[in-house]
Amino acid sequence: MRERDYVDAAVAEWNTQKTQRPFDDVALLMRVIRIGGILERELAALCTRFNLKAGQFQALSALRRAYPRTLTPSELNHGTLLTSGAMTPLIDRLEEKGLVKRLADPDDRRGVRVELTRAGCALIDEALDERIARLAELVAPLGDAELVKSESALRKILLLLEGPTENTTS
After folding, report:
1. What are the residue ranges spanned by the domains of the chain?
2. Does residue 110 sit in helix, strand or coil?
3. How far is CA 4 from CA 21, 31, 38, 43, in A?
4. What is the pTM of this model?
5. Which of 3, 53, 78, 155 suits 164 as a labelling partner, its CA being 20 to 30 A distant?
């Protein structure tokens, strides 16, 4: 008998209710939602250890991906899952911590660009090493074929929700 997870139990309970809802068909996404919640809690714990908030981690990660390029606040916002209104105070906090600095935008006299400092780069590299090691540990039991099929299926769903993108920061 195969092992049951939380979603198996929930779907079985829903199926006893004789509803017309297709719970079996959405079990995959129910698992994605559950996994996402667990991974978000793990990220929150990681951020606490590094004295960061999850949004700050996302912003530093976006800056690290773009490094050594600088990003505008708008580009930085695009590279995170934050609202545009949260970006200015987030950059303020990161600047206060010495993790980023604002620079005048040479192409826009009214604009600014955000640059990752050496301290910011070192901090996010250490935090990312931990995060990526944990994610790699979670997918390690999957075979190559399972991983490719899973990635393909989830990519299709994500494209339905977000559409295609050229890159993550602009």
Report:
1. 1-49, 53-142
2. coil
3. 21, 12, 17, 25
4. 0.85
5. 53
Q: What are phi and psi of 108, to 5 degrees?
A: -150, 105
Distance from the first to the final alpha carbon of the chain: 48
Task: Calculate helix-pair angle for 118-139, 54-66, nearest 10 degrees.
Answer: 100
Which pLDDT score, from 0 to 100, does residue 142 have?
95
Q: For the structural domain made of 53-142, what CATH number should be given?
A: 1.10.10.10
pLDDT at 80 over 90: no
Mean of per-residue pLDDT scores for the chain:
91
Q: How many CB atoms neighbour CB 129 within 10 A?
A: 10
Omega cis (within 30) before 68: yes
d(CA 33, CA 147): 18
SS3 label, residue 103: strand
The percent of residues in the chain predicted with pLDDT above 90, rounded, is: 65
- 87 and 73 in contact (C-beta within 8 Å)? yes
- Tell me the pLDDT tens digit for each residue of 134-164: 999 999 999 999 999 999 999 999 999 988 8
34 and 159 in contact (C-beta within 8 Å)?
no
- Asked whether residue 4 carries a pLDDT value surpassing 80, the answer given is yes
